[in-house]
Hints:
The structure holds two protein chains of two kinds.
Chain A: H1 2-7, H2 11-14, H3 19-27, H4 32-39, H5 43-52, E1 55-58, H6 66-72, E2 78-82, H7 102-110, E3 117-121, H8 127-136, E4 142-146, E5 149-152, H9 153-162, E6 168-172, E7 175-177, E8 196-198, H10 208-216, E9 223-225, H11 232-242, E10 248-251, H12 261-272, E11 279-282, H13 288-292, E12 303-305, H14 314-322, E13 329-333, H15 337-347, E14 353-357, H16 374-383, E15 389-394, H17 399-408, E16 414-419, H18 434-443, E17 449-451, H19 458-467, E18 473-477, H20 483-492, E19 498-502, H21 508-512, E20 523-527, H22 533-542, E21 546-551, E22 572-577, E23 590-592
Parallel strand pairs in A: 1-2, 2-3, 3-4, 4-6, 5-7, 6-8, 8-9, 9-10, 10-11, 11-12, 12-13, 13-14, 14-15, 15-16, 16-17, 17-18, 18-19, 19-20
Antiparallel strand pairs in A: 20-22, 21-22, 21-23
Chain B: H1 2-9, H2 46-59, H3 80-84, H4 112-119, H5 128-143, E1 153-158, E2 165-168, H6 175-186, H7 190-194, H8 203-206, E3 211-217, E4 222-224, H9 230-236, E5 237-244
Parallel strand pairs in B: 1-5
Antiparallel strand pairs in B: 1-2, 3-4, 3-5
Helix pairs in contact in B: 5-9
Amino acid sequence: MNRATKLRPSTSEMNYFPDEVIEHIFDFVASHRDRNSISLVNKSWHKIERYSRRQVFIGNCYAISPERLIRRFPCLRSLTLKGKPHFADFNLVPHEWGGFLHPWIDALAKGGVKLEELRLKRMVVSDESLELLSRSFVGFKSLVLVSCDGFTTDGLASIAANCRNLRELDLQENEIDDHRGQWLNCFPDTCTTLVSLNFACLKGEINLSALERLVARSPNLKSLKVNRAVPLDALTRLMSCCASQLVDLGVGCYENNEPEPESFAKLLFAIAKCTSLRSLSGFSEVGPLCLTAFIPISANLTSLNLSYAAEIQGNHLIKFVHFCKRLQRLWILDSIGDKGLEVVASSCKELQELRVFPSDLHDEEDNNNTAVTEVGLVAISAGCPKLHSILYFCKQMTNAALITVAKNCPNFIRFRLCILEPNKPDHITSQSLDEGFGAIVQACKGLRRLSVSGLLTDKVFLYIGMYAEQLEMLSIAFAGDTDKGMLDVLNGCKKLRKLEIRDSPFGNAALLADVGKYETMRSLWMSSCEVTLGGCKRLARNAPWLNVEIINENESGRMERNEEDEREKVDRLYLYRTVVGTRKDAPPCVTIL
Amino acid sequence: MSGFRDVCSSSGSVNVMIGVSPAEEGDGNAAAAISSEDSSSPDETVAGTELDLALGLSVGRNHSKVRSFSSSLASSSSSSSLTRESGTKRSADSSAAASKGNVAVGWPPLRTYRINSLVNQSKSSPAEDDIQKDTTKNGVKNNDASFVKSPMLVKVTMDGVIIGRKIDLNALDSYEALAKTLEQMFFHTPVTARCKETRRGSELLDGSSEYIITYQDKDGDWMLVGDVPWLMFLGSVKRLRIMRRSGETGVGK
């Protein structure tokens, strides 16, 4: 934060500037962490910063209440909220756990906030809250929902109908109850402001002519991601409509048979006009021919997400990716194979982020010889000098490979390796993978996010505590031997914000060693570990500024049991710092200590 | 409770076994036997109930309330692998017990949305012999009384409906079940499905409906469903089509 340090010695001079000037200077500071720092300098700056803050990011919706937020930042325009803990994505959190949007919309509306943008992740959103949202904020422009649930297409209809200035409606991987209604029809004819429309996660049919009319009257539309109900010819018409300005396209059309030559020719013609296209995604239930059609513009692509293209075999994926010389971001299925990753390594020299997802979760006896292994990972690390983020699902790994990867790619910021079989050792030496991951944390000095897997002892956590100085988020599963592992992480990683652990033998000793540590962290998740109810109670007593939540399997709650045995192991523990104490909306299956 | 945890966390190879939240909550995340494109509302369908019972029997030894996992996702080479889990340690040295088909809730760490999209895809263009291999494997599993079978997904289209569906034939045991399932998929809205009164018999099979079920067999011919024994049908079916009766001409027998 250069400006603050430069000005600090002469803040008295700075105070002669009118507030608007200081505010204008603050405008250049966008990062919310830096803004938080500014607000701590003195009272005057705190006040100016408060009123000029436009974007607020709340990493845990229960860390603060909407009322307090609005009191502090009455002029906010853009709000990002995250609800359920990360492991909710993997069904480890009951649906009704919490993360409800409604109280926030309610408070924002009552507080007269002129909300323009709302970004939500893992929140429970209801049709009522969407309707309230649509009616309460005249200038509302942008709604982004990621991994949310609880609403239907009726809620989308309200947004479409009432948000006159809507620019962005972006639905990513949400569970939406599709009533197959006419929500697209609800966009009024006067709505011409759309820039981004993504409804790829909707499962039902949509009104195609309504969509075509909507696209036709949206001259600013840059990003369009349709769902599987949009067949090839309709997609072609849509593309022709906005081809020249389209930057981001999501394709998803159900193909019964191969496309007819005439339709295909029209598609090719439309694609040729998409000279601005940089990002391509979708392709669920789409045959390889449709992908091949995009080869003419493939050299322009910077982002490619084929991780849902399960019907396109490896050789077609490889052929396509080979042409994507400018690719920066690639999400793909492991059906591309090690050979395919070698092609990526030689073709995509600009690659920064790679995610390789498993394509076949049923494969018992590794019949599938084309899945990716450590060979592909090494190839990528050797061939792509700009690579900084990776998520890699594979069946096997070796220490040697990880050590090579660490040497090739010391610039990793995010390194997430998921070996599908828990506790799987180095498949050549049969040893644990401690040394491999140790090499990663030692070499990658800027590592902020790490997920470990495979056979791991306490040693890997010793390494992590020692070397991972910038680590902010750590995910652990089926790893470690004793409390020492967890302790090394808690003591060593000074910047740790989120720690999530499952099925690992860490218990009360590790949990309780340094209660103050949790004040510096956003949250801790522990499931199927060795912590007991007694330990959690002790923690809750010593740290009143924490919400310590026990999530029970038994929906009716622990109170049903005759004695609360303090030695009973806790199945799921989720604790987080908060300034507003115990939340009132917890369901019966959650006990807050 | 500890017994179940051991089930979850034994070592050994894991073949997906994605746990879903208890079926009573039944949010649309549960990949039910019917891999349906519906983002189903939290109701129990008939298939969903059947799913629970089967699961409860196969794993529930140590734990009366299974945290449940979808049978259509879990595959196991031996039915006994699940019951062997009780008592095995979480740590690495139980590699001796390394049996395939272990189950861990929420593992591998993939969003439900993504897993459902995989379940909804059939294996890409399987060759003729692959299908036969799959079905004989499945046939053997049926005899094994294994409760956990790999899914046999076939596409189902219906005249006049753009969106096709996929259905897991291995989760069904008879033509009646098939007809009921198809009726629920294509003829019942979520609302009517809840009303027990409107649940009709399998009209699709008894000839009183306007539609008939046909299937394409491995020779490429379209046949009327119901003529051959169920297991034989499973061995030769490639895809299903619900046809309007008027288009019946040309269906081979």
